[in-house]
Every structure is written in C-alpha cells, then in structure tokens.
Amino acid sequence: MGNGLRLGPVLRHVTETSATIWVETNAPGRVTVTAGDLSASADTFEVHGHHYALCDLTGLLPGRAVEYRVSVDGTPVWPEAGSPHPPSLLRTPDPSAPQRLLFGSCRTPTDHGPVAVARYGTDVLRAYALRLAESRRAADGAAEEPTALLLIGDQVYADEIQQPMREYLAARRARTSADSLRPPDDEVVFFDEYAELYRLSWSDPDVRWLLSTVPTLMLFDDHDIRDDWNTSGTWRREIAENPWWRHRITSGLGSYWVYQHAGNLSPAQRAADPVWRALRDGGGAALDEFAWRAHTDPSSYRWSHSHTFGRSRVLMVDTRCGRDVADDRARSILGPVGERWLDESLTGDVDHLVVASTLPFLLPKGVHYLEAWNEAVCAGAWGGWLRGPGERLRQVLDLEHWAAFQRSFASVAEAVLEVAGGARGAAPASVLFLGGDVHFSYLARARPRGRATDTVIAQLVCSPLCNWLPPAMRRMTWLSARAVAGLCCRVLAALAGVRAPALDWRLDDGPWYDNALATLVLDGRSAAVRWEHSPVARTALLSAARSRTRPPVRELAAHRLTRG
User: Fold this and answer.
1) Which of 26, 59, 92 is the last residue in one of the domains?
2) Which mean pLDDT values do the consecutive 10-residue runs of the chain (564 residues) have?
C-alpha cells in the first residue's frame, strides 16, 4: 500500500499571492500541491515517528479562487476518491473587498449522535461546513465566502477526552512502559497521544473539508495543554510535582507548534524561525528541547502573530504560555516579550485594529472585579493569611483572565486609548477585541473614562463551537452579568485597593449559551458582526442527530459596530 494522508490537508497562512498547505502523511515522502499551472513540493519531516510537510504555493492572483490537489510520492491523495464534498479551493483575499473573518473557540469532537448532542450541543463548525458545501455546490455563495477562520483556543481538549481517545490511551499504555510516570488514565501525556487527539478532532469528514478550503489561523488556550494552565506560580509549582508533567508540557507545546503554530507563519517567518531550523535537523529531540525551554523560560519564544487583511490588522495574542506568574505582586498575562510585541503592534493607520486573544479582554463587570479583587488578595492586600485561601479560590473558580492581571489590563487599555486618540498613527474606525474560553457569547461596548474618541471600542466573544455549559453553570454566569453583581464586586475590589479602569463598558447584547460561530465583516471603515447557531430547541437537535440530517444554522444576533 502506498503512502497517503493521515490528516489534512489544512489550508493555513494565505496572502494575496501565496498559500501554505499543511499535511500529515502515513510515512516519509514528498508532498506536492498543484493549483492550476502552479505547484509546490516539500519533503516530509519527522517528529517521534510522525511525518509532516508544509507546501508553500506562490504566484497566486489576488482575489481569485482555484482548485487544488495533493499528491504524495506522485500518487493523488486529495481530493479523496468518491468524496461528496465540492473541490477544495485556494481563495486569496482581495484587499479592496470586504474581509469576512469567522471566529470561535472551544470545540470538543463528537460523533454527532443524540447522546453527544444532548451533552455538548451541535458542532457548529461542522454545521457551517455542511452549509458552505451546499452553497458552493449551488454556486450561490461566492459573495459570502469567508476570508479566514480564526480558531482562538481549545482546539483540542487534552484533559477532557472522549471515549475513542480513552480506548486509544488504554491500548497504547498497555504496550508501553510508562507506568513509572503514573500518567493520568484520562489525559494525554505523550506526543503520540497528542497526535491521535488531533487526528480525532480534525478527521471528521465535514470539518476536514472545511479546514482544507478556508484559511485558518490558530491560538492555544488552557485545554490545549491542561485546564488552568499557568494560572499562577502556585499552580506551576504544584503541577511540576507530577512525574509525568515534563512529558506533558513538552508534548503539548511541541505538538501545538507542529499542528497549529507552524501554519500561522508566513514562509519567510517560518524559514527564519529557529524552531523550524532545529526541527529539520534534529527532529523530535530538538522539538522537545525547544518546548521545555519555552515552558521554563517563557520569554525565550513569542507565540503571538500578526496578520493584515485589506486595510485592517489582526493581532493574535498569546495569553497562556508567555505569562509571568512567579510573583503574585508583579504578574503579567503577556510576559516581557509579549508585552513589548503587543505594545509595538497597537498602532493606528489602519481601518480596523482587531486584537484576538483566547481570553476576553472585557468580561462582564461582576467577573472582572471579582478577578481583580482576587489578584489583590493573593498579592497580600488583605494580609498574608488570606493569600492561601485566595489562591484556592482562584483555581476553583478559574479567576485567571485579563482582569486577574491588572497591570497588563491597564497597560493594554491605555495603549488602546492612545490608538483611539490618534497618538499612535491615524485613529482606526474601531478597535475590536475577539475572545472565547468562557463558553458563552456576548457583545460589550466600551468608552474611555473622561475622554472623547470617535473610534469604536468593543469586545466580541464567541464560545463555544461545541461544548455548551450545563444548566447550573449557565445560571451562575447569567448572574455574574447582572448589574448588581458588577456593583457588589466593584465595591469588593475597591476595598482591596483596585483602581477603576480607564475604560468603562457594558454588555450590549447577550450572554448567549448556545454553541455559536461568529463572522466579523470589515468593509472599508465599516464593521459588523453576526453570531450564528443551531437553535437550542433540544428536541429538534436530537431529531436531526437521529436522522443524520444537516443541523440548521441560523442567525443568533447581528450588530453594526461602525457606520464607515
């Protein structure tokens, strides 16, 4: 049997004239991507017995769509024979056309059956893929084609695995000698296990087709590694006591670089990346060494990345690995390298400045002030005897968003106000924060305290794609969004010495708790956002799951953010 694809192709970094296609193959080989009269080839590289390639097509025309094919060692492997999906397209952006950016986070892979739908809800990413495929077959959806898909966190759940992954772990560990490390039975630890986790998450036929035909940019969040990853210095010290942790963090960060981060980079950025050069020469050992260094010295590597869409800039910001949490009195959600990069990137002279981080910058007021209060207590604002209980509360309630890093929050807020005030170049029409993680969606609009600006500042949250909150958690988060909760927690934070932020904001719509996918449309100086979902009537969803019909995708909410 010849070589073939284990996973992919995944369409990654795309510009007006180039496109990168990522694949995982079953064995070493040479991968060729052909689009019209253009082609690109690359030899695979190996990591712990797995084989990958990135092919960079250049010479494409702006604003054009062309079918592409993939072969391995000269044998066609994509599109698959008998595939029901339309051909995979390379669609380069037209800088003068509206830019349509899909975004969402938190996706648990399921079998889409009634039991899975009852627990996790409809997989909206798959539902969107099915609708896009129908539109392409009918040739009526060209105007609504997405420019890119931003997956902003928890693309895989390494610590909340499904039954197929449990069975894989049991079988694999029965064949290996990992007992001395005592790895958890229900969490992935080793690179092979992460490779299988990605395969299970991205091999659903409809999602696989979507990833092959819509350019995708990615960021990790905690579940890509482990729940509450890098919450605090205490968390880091406690997790390090586990004998399996070094394997977990090196495998998690290493696999993230291969499966997610490498495709975020342009060909020139990747060629200059020391990890790429070391990986090509040293394979898995070099990747493990890099990953461990990135964990022990977060300032040794920058995971954040920037992209241009027309006259708008999108900043994809790492708020996990780069954190500096060693001292509760001097915490940074970005770390020194991330802080410097983001500050330098927060400039004007664009129509829209989009800041995408997995964690919402602007939370509901009650949660924001609760997290700010907790950070102050953990730093000793109410005495040393409360620092321990404060830390336990932080970990139990996941109090570790931007608001729990007040120095970082204040610094970014001030920089955004400078951008909006024209102090960092011509002011954009909007500064928009994209976020996920919290498993509910909302729109919050913000304004400066004591200043005037024509720039719209807003927080757009879309979460989850497939992992809706149980009813009890929904009630808790609904309460946190109420005005009375915000007032009470603000008083509490003030008593701990927390200052009022330079930004004021309120929830303009939401929260919504259904699985959702959002679309941000940037058209000149105009910006609009739309959330879509499968209706929450569970009887209808279960009926669709039983009959295996396409789940409906309908508008949940839509807002014009700027008039242009």
Assistant:
1) 92
2) 88 96 97 96 96 96 95 96 94 94 96 87 94 86 81 96 93 79 91 97 96 98 96 97 96 98 96 92 90 96 97 98 96 97 98 97 95 96 95 95 97 97 97 96 95 94 92 69 75 91 94 96 97 74 62 93 86
Domain boundary among 92, 122, 143: 92
Strands 216-219 and 148-152: parallel
CB neighbour class for 84 (10 Å; exposed up to 12, middle 13-18, buried from 19): exposed
Q: How many residues does the chain have?
A: 564
Same domain, 106 and 41: no
Q: Domain containing 7: what range?
A: 1-92
Q: For residue 387, what are its two tokens?
A: 């620092």
* CATH number of the domain that residue 65 is part of: 2.60.40.380
Overall domain count for the chain:
2
Same domain for 123 and 56: no
Write down the pTM of the prediction.
0.95
181: exposed, middle or buried (Cβ count in 10 Å: 0-12, 13-18, 19+): middle
DSSP letter string, 232-291: -HHHHHHHTTSTTHHHHHHHHHHHHIIIIIGGGS-HHHHHH-HHHHHHHHHHHHHHHHHH
